[in-house]
Amino acid sequence: MKKIILTSLLFPILTLTGLSQTYLAKQWDHTYGGIYVETLTSLSQTADSGFILGGYTNSDSSGEISEQTRGGYDYWIVKTDSTGNMQWEKRFGGSLSEKLFSVEQTLDGGYILAGFAASDSGFDISQPSKGGLDFWAVKTDASGIKQWDKRYGGIDSEWLSSVVQTADSGFMFGGWTFSDSSGDVSQNSRGGSDFWILKTDKNGTRLWDKKYGGNSSDELYVVRQTTDLGYILGGTTSSDSSFEVTSNSKGNKDFWIVRTDVNGVKLWDKRFGGSDNDNLLSMELTMNGGYILGGYTISDSSGDVSQVTRDTSLNILDRGDAWIVKVDSLGSKQWDKRFGGEWVEDAFGYVTPTRDGGYLMGCASYSNISGDKTENNFGFEQSWLVKMDSAGTKLWDKTIFVGREDEYAYPIETYDGCYAIANWSEGGIGAYKSEDRRGAYDFWMIKFCETNIPQLPAADFTASYTEICQGGCFDFTNFSVNSSSFTWNFPGSSTPTSTVTSPTQICYSDTGHYTVTLIASNAGLSDTLEFVNLLYVVPLPPANITQIGDSLFVQQGYLTYQWYYNGAILLNDTNYFLLALQDGDYRVDVVDTFGCPNNDTIFSVQVGLKEFTINGFSIGVYPNPAKSELSVEGLEAFIGGNIQIVDLLGKEIYSSKIINRKQEIQLSNINPGIYFIEVRKGNINSFARFIKE
């Protein structure tokens, strides 16, 4: 059962804890997608104050997607105006899967798209595979019309994660490669995967490439051109000191940055990390000539990680915090900061400088209020923002409320000093999301601006669950702001109204969907938050025992089953069926997938009974349930006739002639389930039912 938080849609101005008399006011939000999955990987603002969003999709033409799939996943980009209204969208791909990880506006007003291609030539891909996955770049004009595409790679696989247009109007592509010297890869592998950059002219023609790495895996996520026209590369290394890696591992994976000159000649490298895994996923140049690095860490305080973990869940398999490292122009660490709550923060999107000299970072968070998090999640996983000053001190944080699950967070400061955030979301209408989802996951973008306008009353509350079993109760926790009195309405419950701040034990005896309304008031002003059919009271599962011969069974598909004989638990009998071995009373307890329980008892069971007698003839089957072999007896009157097994839908599973009074049937090729046996000769027939385990 899922816990959610419900926030008013009427007054979307929300307090930012720790920022005195400053609020974030929602400006707008928009959803873009098709019938299946859209994965967003890139957001940037365009010269006309609009936005370009990029990622990949496996949807056919539907929703905002106007073109059919090429096959598997395809690149997908969406261009919007300054208020997020879609102006056009385009998809590019081949017969297999292509995934886009970076899209940037170019100096001519067009766009450069960078990711990887798995397909051979065909559809939008003009060149055959070099081997495995290849870098694949697509250049479009200002309307998204393809001008050219290029693929680059070696005999093995390459993964393209970043692109930047260079000062000479060419392009620098960055990612990693597993290939030895072959194709476009001019140097042999250092070991595992290596950083790989490839420089082209403005038409995508390869000029040169360089490889950097150590004796294990090195993955490049970001490449940027520096003010002296060289390059800074940022990613993750698992290598010890070897080849271009000049320092040993701090512990598993570490942040790794490499500085080069304009020709890709390495000037220096630096690594940062703690005793466990640290993954760099974002990097930008800063105003003072240094670099801001962002990703996540599962290290506790150790090495370069100066703060202890925020995670108090003690779940060593699912933990981590966002980790930000600031370095100067020579790569020397100036400070580091970690941000997180009681659970895991991962799916790191961006860290980016802001015009006030501070920084903005976004990731996905599973945590409720705890650690650095000042707001509970709406859904299970939510996008989360942290605004920092120039020293990395948190100024405020913001959870982006959606009723279901969001992945990643790509925040940018907009030209007007506000903030746009994009992710891929499975949320429908509710909380900050004003449009329903198109499919499983969609691109979603929202814009906020800071304001000093005081808040009107805003209704905001949590429900302990969205679903309960029949006869159960809900609790509600009130998070309304600027409110002094409350009116709750719970139609259909045992307590239809309440004026307490946070009502508890609101119980429902009848099944169905129920609406909850909260009116939060203060000084003659009020805010009404109503969620229609928010609560679902689930009917108790049927648990009717049926007896056929010595076999007892109930409905399939429940989460758990437990059988009892004369009130004593049968520890090993936890299936939907039971072979009764003794006369007596039998009970079964069932729990369905909602967690709702029920039970049934069948009294005075007698064992050793034949299942059916038809036309005066009866047959017996044993063992029942059966595993690998079934014996059918009592066939004297049917010799020369036919024996048949059918499933519950009447489909024939087995058929054979009857040659003896007792027949053995092998069940190794029959799936578990309930089946009927029919024996027939002329106008006489008989039936039995058995269970295959």
Description:
The protein is mostly beta strands. The protein is built from no helices and 56 strands. It has a 5-stranded antiparallel β-sheet, with no helix packed on it. Strands 24, 25, 26, 27 and 28 form a 5-stranded antiparallel β-sheet that branches. The radius of gyration is 32 Å and the shape is globular. Residues 1-21 have low confidence and may be disordered.
Number of strands: 56
**In terms of per-residue confidence, which ranges show pLDDT below 50 for 5 or more consecutive residues?**
1-21
Structural class: mainly beta
Please state roughly what percent of the residues sit in beta strands, choosing from under 5%, 5-15%, 15-25%, 25-35%, 35-45% or over 45%.
over 45%
Q: Major sheet, described briefly?
A: 5 strands, antiparallel
Rg measurement, Å? 32 Å
Could you tell me how far the N terminus lies from the C terminus, measured between alpha carbons in angstroms? Answer: 31 Å
Strand order of the largest sheet: 2-3-31-30-29
Number of helices: 0
